[in-house]
User: Fold these one by one.
Assistant:
Number 1:
Amino acid sequence: MNEVVLSIKGLSKNYGKVQAVKQLELEIPKGSVFGLLGPNGSGKTTTLGMVLGVVNPVAGSFRWFNENDDVLARKRIGAILERPTFYPYMSGWDNLDLVSRLRSCGMDRAKDVLEMVGLYERKDDKFKGYSLGMKQRLAIASAMLADPEVLVLDEPTNGLDPMGIAEIRDLIRNIAAGGKTIILASHLLDEVQKVCTDFVILKNGKKIHSGKVNSIGANTRLIELGCSDMNALQSALNNMNQIKSLVRNNDLIQVSLDADVTAEMLCKSLAEKGIFPGHIITREKNLEELFLQIVNEN
Amino acid sequence: MFRLLKIELFKLRKTRFFWILIGLVILAFSILPIGAKLWLDYMTSENETIGQFMPDKLPIFDFYDIWQNLTWVYSGFSVLAAFIVLISITSEYSYTTIRQNIIDGFNRNEFILSKLCLILFLSVIFTIAVFIIGLALGFAYSPVTDVASIFAHADMLLAYFIHLLTFLSFSLLIGLLLKRSGLAIALLVFYIYFIEPIINAIIRFEMELPFIASSLPYKATQSIIPNPFRKYVLSEIRYTIPGPEMMVCLVYLGLYVFASFYVMKKRDLS
C-alpha cells in the first residue's frame, strides 16, 4: 500500500544566484493524485524538470520506482511540462506517431487515447491549427500513449476557459480512477482540491507544507450566517466562547468553530437569545484559504 | 541506428525547408556541369585557350579528373546541407521539442546520435549523388572508360564524404550553441564567407603560415579536396588527398561530435 513512486532527497537547483529549488524532500505514494502547489516562481516546474531529466540538479537525488536507470524509468512516465509541446507542422496523429517512435511503444493505443480526450475526429489536422484546449488534450493523450504508470501534468488547465477546465478535470479524475498515480502542478487551488488526494506547497523553492486534501477542514468548521438584524447577530456571536474567529462582510458573517460544534448547536444558542438567522451554510475550510494562510505565514 | 534515422526523417518529412533545400541542391548539382559544358563549347567555338589547353582538350569531364573536379566544385554547395542540419536542430529549440523528446523517453545521447545519423545520411546521399553524376558525365564525355581509369582517384569521393561529415557536424554544434535558426544561419554564412576568408588571407599571405590557414574550421573541411583547376593553368599536379590536412579534418570531426554530446549533457533544457 505504501509503495513510493517517486522519492526526492535534498534536491536543489539554482540559476545563477537565484535558488529555484532548495533541499527538497518529497515522497509520492503510489496511486495518489498528488498536487504540487505554490505561487508562480516557487519552483514547481523546475522540480518537475529535474525529475523528468531535462534540468540538471546541482545537489540531491531523486528516484523513480526504486529504479537506478532514470531513462528506463522515464518510459514508464507520461508527462507534460509547462505547455503542450509538439511539432506544429505535423498532424495530431503524426505527432503521436513520433512520440511512439521515441518511446518505442507502438501505436496500438493511439486511437483509444485520442478518443478518450475527444480528438479522434481532428487527428489529421495540423497541431498548429488546434485551439489551446485541443493542444492540452493532445498533450494528455500523448502522455497516456504508452500507458504509463505515472502521469505528470504541469498546469494542464493553463489558459483554458471554464468548460475546458471542467473537461480536463473530468479527464484527470477518470485517469486517476484507473489506478494511475498523477502528479499535478497547479496554482488553481480549486482544481487541486477537487481532484487531488495529497498535496505539498512550495514557496521560493522550499517545501512549506504537506498534507492530505481530505484533512484540510478536519479541525475547523466554517459557518456562514445572515439575518435581518446583523448587529444583534454579531454581538450575540461575539459573546459565544465556541467561536474561534469571526469575519463580517456586508450582510454575511463567517465564523470558524471547533469541529465538534455543529450548526445546530449554534442555532440553538442563537435562538435562546431571540435571534433566528435566515441564512445558514456550513462548509469546510477550503484549500485556497489554507494555502493563503500558509503562504502568508511563511 | 536506423530507428534514430527514421525518427529524424519522420520529423523532416513534412517540413517545407527540407524539400526546398533538397530542391536547391538538385538544381545546383545539375546546372553546374551543364553550364561548364556550355562554356567549354563556347570557348571552343571562339578559339580561346585556357592555360595551355584548348578548351575541348581540357579533361574536365574525363576519368579520372572528373572526381576531383566535381567534388571540389560541389563542396561549395555543402552549405545547403548545413542549413538542413542547422534548421533541424534549432527548430527543436524553438518548438521546445528538444525537451519534450527527452521527457518522452529519448535520452540525451540518443538525441545527438539521431542528429548525427541525419548528418551521416545526408553525407552518404550527397556522396552517392556525386558518384552517379560523375559516372554519367564521364561516360558521356570521357575518351577513356576502362575500369582502372574510372576508379583512379575516385578516393576524392571519400574526401568529399569526410568534408561533408565534418562541416555538417560543425553546423550541428553551431546550431546547438546558438539555438535560434535565423541567428545560426546568419552567423554561419557570415563566418564562412566573410570572417574566415579574411583570417585566412591574413594568416596565409601576411604571416605566411599556409598550413595554419588551411586548418581554419571551414577551410579545413575544404582543404582535403585540393583545387583541381590549378593544374590546368599551372601544370601543378595534385591528385591525392593531402594527409596532414585530412588528419586536421578528422580531429575537427571528433571535436565537434564530442562537443555536441558534451553541450547536450550539460545543458538545462528549459
Note: The longest strand of chain A covers residues 4-15.
Number 2:
Amino acid sequence: MRKNKISFINLYPLTFLSLFLTNFAFGQMIRDDLLSLDNREDFGNYLFCQKDYLRAIDEFNFVLREKWNDTLQYKVGSSYFYMEKYSDAMNSYEKLFSSRLNSEEAKLEYYRSLFFIGDYGKFRERFVAVYFPKSYETELNRLKAYSYFMDDSELPTETELIANFETHDIKRITQFYNWKKDPPYKSPTKAAIMSAIIPGLGKVYADEIGDGITSFLLTGLFIYLAVDKFQSDQNTGAWLFTALAAFFYGGNIYGSAAAVQNYNASIKFSFDSDVSFYLNKRNHFLPKPKYLCK
Amino acid sequence: MNIIVIIILSTGIIFAQTDWEKWDKTDINYEIQVRKDQSSSDDNSSVGSVILRGLQDSYSFLISDVDGDNCPFYPSCSNFYIESIQETNIFQGTLMFADRFTRDSNLYKGKTHYPHHSSGKYFDPTYNYYLKQNEVHFYSRVKIVE
C-alpha cells in the first residue's frame, strides 16, 4: 500500500511537465491562428465599425501589404476621412482610381475630401482632371457651385450657378447668391460722417443704439459745460471741459466707423453660418458615403 | 442617569475643543497682490513706453487696487489703452480708448452684445478696432472665448 502511494507521488512531476508542454504547443497554434490575415481583417473591420480608425488603419495596412483588396483600401481612405485627415484620405482614395470595383466611389470621396480641406479654388480647378468621376458629375457640380459662397472668388452668373440644383433648393441658393453678390454691408465712412454731424448717430446707424445715446449724452454734457464755463469767464475749467468734449467727440467718430466694421463682420459671420448649416443639412449635395459597417 | 448625562456633556466638551482652532488668530497678509496683467515688466524700454507703463502702474496702484476690479471688459480699459497705443500710435490709441470708455459708460450692454471671456467678463479685443476690416474677428456669442 505504502509503495503504491510513493509511485503515485513520483508521477506528479511527469504529469505536470506533460501538461505544461502541451499547453505551450497548443498555445502556439492558437497564436498563429489569431494573427492570420483573415483575423486581422476582421479585427480591422471591427475597429473601423467601433470608430477606432487609427488602429483599424494599422490592421488594414498590414493585410494590404500581403494581399490587395479594394474595399480595405477604400476603408483606409474612409478612416482618414473620418479622422479629418483629408490629405491622407485623398492619397488613399487615389490608389483606387484605376481599380475595377470602387473606382467611381473613390473618385467621389477624393473630391469630397478635397472640398473638406477648404481650398475651394483648388477644388474647382480639379474639375477638368482626367479622373473626374462622370457618374457623379451633377452632384459634384452642385458642390462646385455652392463653393462660391464659401470663399471670396468671383461669382459666376446666377443662371450658371443655379443650373444644377433641384427645384426645392433654388429659392435658398438664390438668396445666398443675392447676398453674396450684393452683401448688405454698411459704410464706415458714412457712420463717421453721421457721428461728426450728430454725436452718436453713426453708432445708431451701426445698430449700437445704447452706445449712440451714451456718446450723445457724454459729448453733449461736456460741450454744454465748456460753453457754460466760457460764458462765465472760467477759462481753465472751460478748456478742461473742451478737451474732454473733444476726447469723446473724436472717440465717437472713430468708434462709429469701428462699430460699422464690427457690424459687417457680424453679418458676414451670420451668412457663413447659414451657408455651412444648409450645406450640412443637404449633406453637401452628395450621396452619403458608402455604408461600410454591417 | 447622572453618569449618562456626565458622559454626554464631557464628550461634547472634548469634541468642542477641536472647533476652537478656527477662532484662533491668523496672520493676515496686507501686501497688495500685483496681477499678472498689471506687471510693469516690459521689454520695450522707449521713453514713451516707460511713461505709459508708469501711468498705468500709478493708476493700478492708486485707483484700481483700491476701487477693485470693476471693468466689465477683458482686456480691462487701462490694458486696452496700452495695447492700442502699442499696436497703433498715440493718437489712434487715444481715440480707441475714448470709444471704449464710452462703450463702458453705456449701461445697456446686453448679455449677447459682446462675446464672453473665460474670466467671466465681456471679451472686447483691441484688434477689432484698428479700422482694418480684414482683422475684425466676430466671435460666436454662445461660446466662451479662452
Note: Chain A is about 75% helix and 0% strand.
